């Protein structure tokens, strides 16, 4: 059985075809600049040169048609025809409270996804467009929606309710939802397997650190707390997102500095975070280079980021009544040894120590704590696509 995983952005599309008999990725690719001049598809297959197609794509339907063509291409493809694709798994950012698990896509589901779009206006609409495009091109192939928010639906009420008038939750669904759920779910399970323990017996803090970043407290296999909130703006300092701040700053910017609501939203989402502090870049590599060259603001941006992650790890250990394992994942978590080391500094009282030599690792499953560390610390590359494919396969079976 082969599952095609689709992840649609507003002008991009990531995809991966996975053979579920051995969970091997047959091909993965990225379509960029959909509906914009310079549209391009890049497909990678192990052991081959990249397959690149530069051609105009007016919408996601054009893009998906191109993806399917690339997968069956006589010279560069990996399957003979589309009938080899048993199902399509779609990443959907927001499922609201309706979906605590992945679901087979029906007309009713599509209607409810559209209703959830107001909760994730930047993310859900392109997800829906991708599903509709696939349905048009593959009408007889089962489709599954896998939600970023689903894993966090196990949070207790005291963790997700905001201290606002309760009617705002009842009538408008204003509450903490959390995101990156597929990633947190995947790496927490790999951590348990690596430790040789049942996940239902563990307290794990998973750190998904990239341009977008979030932490999750996973107790007995379930999400009980997470750092992102009603939107992916909350929580940690990120590449261009401010994370948690005094909410009165938003009204101050409007009333005292004359900014519009749209300008404030843009400032907090696209001009803040480590980019806003450093004035250098939203890319941590650029900031680290600038700090090494003596930029005080770049160093401050890194210090603020490390401090905030450290705060959340401590808070989540308290929320769970202890911690057995800490996991670093995503682009920064998997590859930046200095980041991991700085975050763990000062947390020895919780029972873990980093082994500097073991920590010199990138992009592979590795324990980086010392042999006598009471709490295990791991680097675990995330694989959201595989998690989506697994959910898709289990549903269509």
TrEMBL record:
Site features described as Transition state stabilizer, chain residue numbers: 180, 241
E.C. number: 2.7.2.1
Binding site for ATP: 14, 208-212, 283-285, 331-335
Enzyme superclass (EC): transferase
Keyword Iron-sulfur in annotation: no
Keywords linked to the UniProt accession: ATP-binding, Cytoplasm, Kinase, Magnesium, Metal-binding, Nucleotide-binding, Transferase
GO-annotated biological processes: acetate metabolic process; acetyl-CoA biosynthetic process
Positions with a binding annotation for substrate: 91
Reaction catalysis annotation: acetate + ATP = acetyl phosphate + ADP
Cofactor: binding details: Mg(2+). Can also accept Mn(2+).
Record pathway: Metabolic intermediate biosynthesis; acetyl-CoA biosynthesis; acetyl-CoA from acetate: step 1/2
Cofactor(s), names only, from the UniProt record: Mg(2+); Mn(2+)
GO molecular function, one term: acetate kinase activity
Domain of life (superkingdom): Bacteria
Binding of Mg(2+), residues: 7, 384
Active site: 148
Entry keyword annotation includes Membrane: no
Main localization (coarse): cytoplasm
Subcellular location: Cytoplasm
Complex and partners: Homodimer.
Function (record text): Catalyzes the formation of acetyl phosphate from acetate and ATP. Can also catalyze the reverse reaction.
Descriptive protein name: Acetate kinase
The organism of origin for this protein: Clostridium cadaveris
């Amino acid at each position: 059985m082969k599952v095609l995983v689709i992840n649609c952005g507003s002008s991009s599309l990531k995809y991966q075809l996975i053979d579920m008999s051995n969970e091997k990725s047959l091909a993965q690719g990225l379509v960029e600049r959909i509906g914009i001049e310079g549209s391009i598809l890049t497909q990678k297959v192990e052991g081959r040169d990249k397959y690149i197609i530069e051609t105009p794509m007016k919408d996601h339907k054009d893009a998906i048609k191109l993806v399917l063509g690339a997968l069956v291409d006589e010279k560069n493809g990996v399957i003979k025809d589309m009938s080899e694709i048993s199902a399509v798994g779609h990443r959907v950012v927001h499922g609201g409270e309706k979906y605590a698990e992945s679901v087979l896509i029906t007309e009713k589901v599509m209607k409810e996804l559209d209703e959830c779009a107001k909760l994730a206006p930047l993310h859900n609409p392109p997800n829906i467009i991708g599903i509709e495009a696939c349905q048009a091109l593959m009408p007889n192939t089962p489709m599954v929606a896998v939600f970023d928010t689903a894993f966090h639906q196990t949070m207790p009420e005291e963790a997700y309710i905001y201290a606002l008038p309760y009617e705002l939750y009842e009538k408008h669904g204003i509450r903490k939802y959390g995101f990156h759920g597929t990633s947190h779910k995947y790496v927490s399970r790999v951590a348990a397997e690596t430790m040789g323990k049942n996940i239902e017996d563990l307290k794990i803090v998973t750190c998904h650190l990239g341009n977008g970043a979030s932490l999750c407290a996973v107790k007995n296999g379930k999400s009980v707390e997470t750092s992102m909130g009603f939107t992916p703006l909350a929580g940690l300092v990120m590449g261009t997102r401010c994370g948690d701040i005094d909410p009165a700053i938003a009204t101050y910017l409007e009333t005292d500095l004359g900014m519009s609501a749209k300008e404030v939203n843009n400032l907090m989402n696209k001009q803040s975070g480590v980019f806003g502090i450093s004035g250098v870049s939203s890319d941590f590599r650029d900031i680290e280079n600038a700090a090494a060259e003596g930029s005080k603001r770049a160093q401050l941006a890194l210090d603020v980021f490390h401090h905030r992650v450290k705060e959340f790890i401590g808070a989540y250990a308290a929320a769970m009544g202890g911690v057995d394992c800490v996991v670093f994942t995503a682009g920064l978590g998997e590859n930046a040894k200095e980041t991991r080391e700085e975050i763990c500094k000062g947390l020895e009282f919780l029972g873990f120590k980093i082994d500097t030599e073991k920590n010199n690792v990138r992009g592979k499953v590795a324990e980086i704590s010392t042999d006598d560390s009471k709490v295990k610390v791991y680097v675990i590359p995330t694989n959201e696509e595989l998690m989506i494919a697994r959910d898709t396969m289990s549903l269509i079976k």
